[in-house]
Write a structure and sequence with these properties.
f41 fragment of flagellin, N-terminal domain, rod-shaped, 273 residues, 68% helix
Length: 273
């Protein structure tokens, strides 16, 4: 290349290299600032799209967890109400058995009958109060729970409502005011105990299923979030080392450009006498 003051090839090459270094330095600084190697679609469109899809899945799982937790709380409240009913039935059976004793006097039988009726009334109150977030699973018109099980709502975990009302357990009529009615009531209360125990078993299984799936969803969400991090997060230790290298390279590039720009001034010596 002939010596020329119009075209300085060395300066052009030095400037190109310096611009490339500055571009790399800007990329590294952006990664350090954001903590991500892919912060937008222009960094890597395909990987960014994959990460966005996975973020959408992870976000949807928050709704699934809320649904599972809410459903589990509803079932647990229903179980608490059912256990209260079961405990009352055990006491009622004891009262009925005591009232079936032919040796009882009228006053004692009346007292047992009053206790029995009071417990039956308490069963109705326990069932009525077993409500969470406006949902009651053990009333005569109990609500069946259908919790979300996946991120698109196509799968649900269902826990069936159980009728533990007095009518539902066939205990809304009858008394122990006489020996004969007390003897008949023993079997009736025994059947009610069996019904309530079966219902509690089903709801207990449902609550356990909700809890197990909630644990799984939590682990799944953590795995997805970790996967997104693997796709887009920057290795800050590596970027820090690269930053130092590029800053040094930038300084050398500035010096190289300065030398290249000053090289044409040597031509002046050719024109000195």
């Amino acid at each position: 290349m002939p010596n020329s003051v119009n075209t300085n090839v060395g300066a052009m090459v030095a400037l190109q290299n310096l611009n490339a270094t500055n571009a790399d330095l800007m990329t590294v600084q952006n990664r350090i600032n954001t903590g991500k190697k892919i912060a937008s679609a222009k960094d890597n469109g395909a990987i960014w799209a994959i990460a966005q899809n996975q973020r959408a899945t992870s976000g949807s799982l928050n709704a699934v967890k809320d649904s599972l937790q809410r459903s589990q709380s509803t079932v647990d409240v229903a179980i608490a109400g059912g256990e209260a009913v079961s405990d009352l039935l055990l006491q009622m059976k004891e009262k009925a058995l005591a009232a079936s004793d032919s040796s009882l006097d009228t006053a004692s039988r009346t007292a047992l009958s009053d206790d029995f009726n009071a417990m039956r009334d308490q069963i109705a109150k326990s069932v009525s109060n077993a409500t969470f977030n406006g949902v009651n699973m053990i009333s005569a018109t109990g609500t069946t729970i259908a919790a979300l099980a996946n991120d698109d709502g196509s799968s649900k975990i269902t826990v069936q409502a159980q009728d533990l009302s007095l009518a539902g357990i066939s205990l809304n009529t009858g008394s122990i005011s006489t020996q004969a009615t007390a003897e008949a009531m023993i079997a009736t209360v025994g059947a009610a105990i069996t019904t309530v125990s079966t219902a509690l078993s089903k709801m207990g299984t449902g609550s356990k299923s909700l809890g197990a799936h909630l644990t799984f969803i939590g682990k799944l969400q953590d795995s997805i979030d970790a996967g997104v991090g693997n796709l887009v997060d920057a290795d800050l230790a590596k970027e820090s080392a690269r930053l130092t290298s590029l800053q040094t390279k930038q300084q050398l590039g500035v010096q190289a450009l300065s030398i290249a720009n000053s090289s044409s001034s040597g031509l002046l010596s050719l024109f000195r006498g």
